[in-house]
Amino acid sequence: MNRRTLVYILIIGIVAAVIYWMTYQHRIRQTSELMPLLASQDHKEGMEAMSKLKAHGVGVQERLIDSLTSQVARVRWRSAVLLGELNDPSVAEPLMQRLDDPEPQVQAAAARAVGQLRVKSAIPRLTTMLSSDSEVVVRIAAARTLGLLDAEEAVASLAAALTEQQIAAEEQPQDNWQLPVAAAHALGSIGTPQAATALIGAVQPDERVRQAVAYALGDAALKLQHDETQLSNIIQALLVAGKDDQANVRIAAIHSLLLVPAPSSQQQTVAQLIEQAHSDPHYWVRQVAQAGPG
Q1: Same domain for 243 and 207?
Q2: Alpha-carbon torsion 182, 171, 250, 282, what sign?
Q3: Which sign, positive or negative, has the C-alpha torsion 197, 198, 200, 203?
Q4: Per the count of CB atoms within 10 A, which of 57, 94, 112, 120 is most buried?
Q5: Residue 13 located in a structural domain
Q6: What distance in Å separates the CA atoms of residue 115 and residue 110, rounded to the nearest whole number?
Q7: Dihedral sign computed on CA atoms, order 136, 139, 143, 149
Q8: pTM above 0.90?
Q9: 107 with 101: CB under 8 angstroms?
């Protein structure tokens, strides 16, 4: 290698180092400009700042961890959301601390984040949040995260949330059904025999909950398809749901029945129900039945 070549290599190295340094400094300046926008009351502005910060990746992680203790609740929950999306398990501990935040939206954001990071050690705290927190938004987030974490030890608490009576329906009619729906989907994701039993035994007057249970039973059936007794019980429950007076419940039941082959003793009954669904008065029931498995 001659002297001229060495000079060229040196120049290229210096240029690359300068470009890297300039890029790094630009990101630092941009991060410093974006971080205060996490406190913005303008939703669009706050979301745009979050999107740009996320693009910076783990380079903004330490700043976001610091922001978890901000005096402004919007900053804390937006920081928790971002940390979950950055997908670095090393931030689990500061997020776990936010599960006890005084602001429900921050608790819910932290719960979702630890679910994204698959933090199994959060299961006991999330189970307590599901069972005893006074805020519906927190309980819903806890239920969904327990499903993400396949928290078998939380099945009893999820079952209780699923069958919970319509507490304070007059005061919170918009939230009345969301918790049992979240619990149903979580139980379906967990998919143990105990979870399936809880879903099968659920009796709910709200069609949205019955719909969620029917879909969740399909999820559970996929996990329990080699347990013929459990699968048979699930299929029987879906056959009942397939005759529900609400079309959305029938759609969910038909969809779930098409996911897994029924035990031989139930195949004819399932086939008859699917055939009847081909002439259902509701368009989407017919479409799901005609689409077949898959």
Answers
A1: yes
A2: negative
A3: positive
A4: 112
A5: no
A6: 9
A7: positive
A8: no
A9: yes
